[in-house]
Amino acid sequence: MNGATTTAATAVEHKASSTGLEGVNVADTLISEVDGANGRLIIAGYTAETLATTLSFEQLAHLLWTGEEANAQPKSALISRFGLARVAAFARLEACRSILNKNDAMDSLRSFISLIDLKAADDLKSFTHMASAMAVFVGNWTNLVHERPLVAPDASLEQSADILRMLHGETPSAALSQALNTYLVTVSDHGMNASTFTARVVASTDSDNVSCITAAIGALKGPLHGGAPGPVLRMLKSIGSAQNARPWLEKELSEGRRIMGMGHRVYRVRDPRAAIFEQAVRRLAQEGLEERLALASAVEREAETILRERYPERNLKANVEFFTSVLLDSLDVPEELFTPMFAVGRVAGWCAHVLEQRGLRKLIRPASRYVGVMRDQ
Ligand code: COA
Questions:
Q1: CA 268 / ligand 1 centre spacing (Å)
Q2: With bands split at pLDDT 50, 70 and 90, how would you rate the model's confidence at 288?
Q3: With a 6 A CB cut-off, is 26 part of the ligand 1 pocket?
Q4: Rg of the Cα atoms in the chain
Q5: Percent of the chain with pLDDT over 70
Q6: Closest ligand 1 atom number to CA of residue 320
Q7: Counting beta carbons within 10 angstroms of the beta carbon of residue 42, is it exposed (0 to 12), middle (13 to 18) or buried (19 or more)?
Q8: Among 99, 114, 176, 342, fewest CB within 10 Å belongs to which?
């Protein structure tokens, strides 16, 4: 009994001292900067707002992986490099149908990437192959699940356009592919988030690129990181109307659940990516758009108010996942592909961090403090 009390007391003290490394600087980086107080995101020297409308995913990935200016290479050469890598990755996709878990796209993505053998490839080639393999996977997930013939990639298209083409069986309009491109470049990197840190820990052991990226996929999958947009969409659908927002959210909190798409470890203002996605949705000018955005905004406002009442010091606002759900839903991306699509964009940042970390030649190995009892008398 005494022992149980001691353990419970220790657990409380333990929780109080567990900071989740909040505010700890684990790297000086050239890749991105998240200014949580001012709601500013810089990736490779550009603001997220600039990137969202100027660079293709291929150009941004090249910039992150080589440091070369976006226009140093002809855009067509980059499109073709990624396109040919999609064609190569597609050949592997058919072969691994049987090992995929049809109930879980993220598990399957992790398995698919882990089977890639890139030991002989240089970094640029292996990064391009993994990023392209993810695009082919997402574009064909629905076909894999329903055991339909797979749709081959078109190497002449940009990654964003080809993903939508494989997914929906027709070449998308420029507006749709631009919206997906905006999504992919905007989520490409974001400071020392959990999956990026995971990739860097694995890279610091001098492990291979595929191991770094599969580990990062595992971290991204969790609902506190990249797994939130699906639940956000379900929440919006379940709330259904602005007047239902407050009772629905209050019930959710009273039952001990978190409101998905709200709160952030670093931002104390609204996540700047939320506004970028909101604008991208608006540019699509689809039927029913105003109603969808009005509902999302009403839920966001109500959630902010309720969370402010509960946690006045914390400033819990909408994060990237809130409007991700609205944007990807507007592109007819199935909900189970929201998190894999996040990986398709974030892989650009993961790979850049793997290179940067490996270059430091320093094992990441933090300390811990034993707070258990001494049993050996
Ligand atoms: N809904 C309800 N309560 C929330 C909340 C949310 N979305 N976000 C934070 N809180 C609560 C926490 O439970 C905590 O309360 P407690 O002290 O009683 O346990 C308090 O607010 C402070 O939390 P905070 O320190 O700001 O959270 P964190 O930095 O550890 O975690 C997140 C950040 C993103 C994991 C967290 O805000 C969250 O779970 N959000 C929902 C999931 C989500 O949208 N994830 C995508 C992130 S991009």
A1: 12
A2: confident
A3: no
A4: 21
A5: 95
A6: 48
A7: middle
A8: 99
